[in-house]
Amino acid sequence: MNLIDRFVSEGISLEASLNFITDGLIIVNSKCEILMINQSAQSICGLVPEGLNTNWPEFMGVYKEDRKTLYSADELPLVRAVGGEFITGHFLNLKNHLLNEWKIISCNASPIKENNIIVGAILTFRDLTDVIKENESIQKERAFYQKVLNSIPAYVFSKDLEGNYTFFNEKLKEDFQQNPAQESLMGEISWSAPEHDKIVLSTKKNHEFEEEYKNVKTGKTVLFRTTRIPLLDHQNDVYGICGVAYDITAQRERRKVFDEERTKIATASKLAALGMLAAEIGHEINNPLAIIRTSSWIMRRILTGDVIQKEIALLKLDEIDMTVARISDIVVSVKNLSRDSSSEEMKTHVLKDILTDVQSICGQKFQLKGIKFILEQTSTLGEQIKCFRVQLSEVFINLIVNAVDAVENCENPWIKVEVLKDHHSFIFRVSDSGAGVSEEIERKIFAPFFSTKELGKGTGLGLSISKEIMRKHNGDLVLNRNVSRSCFEVILPQKRE
Length: 497
What we know:
Blueprint: H1 3-9, H2 11-18, E1 24-29, E2 34-37, H3 39-45, H4 56-60, E3 62-63, H5 77-82, E4 87-96, E5 101-114, E6 117-127, H6 129-151, E7 155-159, E8 165-168, H7 170-176, H8 194-203, E9 207-214, E10 221-232, E11 238-247, H9 249-304, H10 310-337, E12 347-350, H11 351-369, E13 372-375, E14 384-387, H12 389-407, E15 414-421, E16 425-432, H13 439-442, H14 462-472, E17 476-479, E18 487-493
Parallel strand pairs: 13-15
Antiparallel strand pairs: 1-2, 1-6, 3-4, 4-5, 5-6, 7-8, 7-11, 9-10, 10-11, 12-14, 15-16, 16-18, 17-18
Helix pairs in contact: 9-10, 9-11, 10-11, 11-12, 12-14
C-alpha cells in the first residue's frame, strides 16, 4: 500500500487530527484530485472543488497582487508542487466566495514522493489578512507620527541603553547630525549628555535639564531645555530614553533684557519713592540740626559766662551726641535703601535692623501726616533671616507708602506692622485703617502697571515687583482679608535650599 492509499484508508483519523491545525492544509494526488482538506482550509477558502478540477484559480478566486488577474492553473503552488517544485513563502490574494471578502495568504507547497516517484503534493497556508492590515495600520500610524514629529518646532530623539540613537526627527538631523553618511548608525549626533541619561535610567523618572549644544549648521552654541523620559516595557524595565528639546536661547536672551529693563524700572520706582520722601527726610534731619545748633549756642553762653555750669554743659553734649547718632541712623538707612539691588547677595540679617531702616525712612512721613505707626514689639524681631536685605526693604517701603496713601484722609489713621512666626515661615503683616481693597481691584492688584493712583502719582509696578521679589526669596506676597479690610502679608520661609 503506497503513501496516498494509506492517507485514503486512514482518512477519518488523519482528518480528525489535521482539523486541530490552525493553518490550512490540502493534500492532492498526482492528478491534483483532493485527498484531504482540513477545516481551517475550508474556512479560509470558503469553497474548495472536490476531486479533479483544472480550473481552480477561477473556482477558488485565486488572484495575483493586482486582484484583477487570475492565476493560471499551471501557476498555482499546489500544481507546481505536483510537477516537482518546492514552493515557500508564496503570497496569494484569495477571494472567499462565501463571505465575499478578500484574504491574503502565505503558502508553502511540496511534492509527496513514494520510491522517488511523485504521487501527490501537500499545500499549507496561513491567513495573514489581519496581520498585514495591522502592520499597514501600524505603518500608517508610524508615518503619521513621524510627520508630526518632523513638523513640530522641537528636537525629538530616542536612544537605547548603550546610548545609541534609534530615532531623531528631521529638525535634529538637519541641525546636529555631524556625519549624515552613517545612516545605519543614525549618524553621529552632537547631542549626548550621558550623565543626564544616567539620572533618567537610574530613577526611571522624567527629568528636565538645561543643556548647551553646538549647531553644526550655524556653528553657534545653543541653549536648550531638554526633557528626557525613560522608556519602560510591560515589566517596568527601562529599555531606552526618549528626549524632547526646545531652543530657549532667544527666550533666555529676551528674559535677560526683560530682567534688566525691569530692574531699571524698579530702581526708578524706588528712587521716585525716595524722592517723595526726600522732603520728609530733610525735615527729619533739620530738626536734629536745630537741636545741635541750640545746644551749641547754650554751650557757648555757658563757656563765656562768669560761672561755668558743668552739669548743664555735659547734658547738652549728651544731647548733641544722641542727635548726631540720630542723623547718622537716617543717613545709613537712606544709603542702605538707595543701593543698586541687582547684584545683591543673599545674606543673614537681623529682622529688627531691616525694619529700623524702613522706619527711619518713613517715620517723619507718619508724623507730618498725623498717622499713628505701630510696630508690634515681639521676640521675633531679634531673630535672623537669610534674605536680600535691600530688596526686602523695598517690599516693606512699598507696602507702607501704599498704606500711607490709603489712610492719609481717614479719621484717626494708623498703620500697624507685625512680625509673626509659624513652624515654617516668618510672616510680616502690614495692615491699616483704610477703606480696604475691593474684589474688583483684588483681581488685578498684582498685575504689572496696574495702579489705583491718579496719573503721574505712581508707576503701577510696586506690588508686581514686590511679589516677584518674594518669589525670588521662595516666599510670597498676599492680600489677607481675614485679618482686616486692608492687610498684606509678606511670607518668608525660615529655611531655603
